[in-house]
């Protein structure tokens, strides 16, 4: 079980409280298969593992162990904008909660009706963007803004939105972003970003050590250039790198537009 699934279960007293997996996980299918069904029904059986073996625990009343998934109670994640992100970037999620809001009860005044939203394994921070206790309209495209958390550089990351009633399903068309050729598709991708450069002028002879601060510099090889001339990397970590400017054959060509 993950932190998203764990609740205050107390097995000695016979109390099991947990979040069930999504139907596509239960059935070993792609997440899009749910679009073929309006509802799915399952029977829950618990296996108790003991030192001397295991035992299957069955419900005294079978009706209390039936698990029902309904599409009209499942939020739909429509798209993320922009789909190309970096650490601390602002993004917007568009979703339709369907009839989910009618099933969410007793939400604390400082909580959201959804538990979290993630790009990959990193949470999106909604603090300061979404008001606590906000209500969303069913059967309507709603939007929330947030800030991207610490990410790994990747050309394809999944976007997930977990509600009190379970995970949102994805619109199989609008959640996909592809290149012009249609050969590389993704829900979201993360790229390095430059936040600041400590020098913006130097000499044609080169030799200046320049510090670049940003995100995503720990992974892979960095090949910075200045006016097309290599700036040789002398140190790097996740948040910054230093490079020594090479000699240029001429001064920079600057164009001033008024």
Walk me through what this model shows.
The protein is mainly β and 258 residues long. It folds into three domains: 11-70, no CATH class; 74-190, Immunoglobulins (Immunoglobulin-like, Sandwich); 193-245, no CATH class. It has one helix and 22 strands. It has an eight-stranded mixed β-sheet, with no helix packed on it. A hairpin with a 6-residue loop joins β15 and β16. It is elongated. The termini are far apart.
List keywords for this structure.
258 residues, mainly beta, Immunoglobulin-like, eight-stranded mixed sheet, five-stranded antiparallel sheet, 1 helix, 2% helix
The CATH superfamily of the largest domain appears as Immunoglobulins
The low-confidence parts are 1-7
Label the structural class: mainly beta
Helicity range of the residues?
Answer: under 10%
CATH topology of the largest domain: Immunoglobulin-like
* Shape label: elongated
Q: Could you spell the SSE succession in H and E letters?
A: HEEEEEEEEEEEEEEEEEEEEEE
What fraction strand?
Answer: 35-45%
Mean pLDDT: 85
Number of helices: 1
Rg for CA atoms: 25 Å
Counted beta strands: 22
Summarize the model shown.
The protein is mainly β and 258 residues long. It is built from one helix and 22 strands. The N and C termini lie far apart (60 Å).
Q: How do the helices and strands line up, and which of them pair or pack?
A:
Layout: H1 23-26, E1 39-43, E2 46-50, E3 53-57, E4 66-70, E5 76-81, E6 84-85, E7 90-96, E8 114-119, E9 122-125, E10 142-148, E11 154-157, E12 159-163, E13 166-167, E14 169-170, E15 177-178, E16 185-186, E17 188-190, E18 193-197, E19 209-215, E20 225-226, E21 229-236, E22 240-245
Parallel strand pairs: 5-14, 6-17
Antiparallel strand pairs: 1-4, 2-3, 5-7, 7-10, 8-9, 8-12, 9-10, 11-17, 12-13, 15-16, 18-19, 19-22, 20-21, 21-22
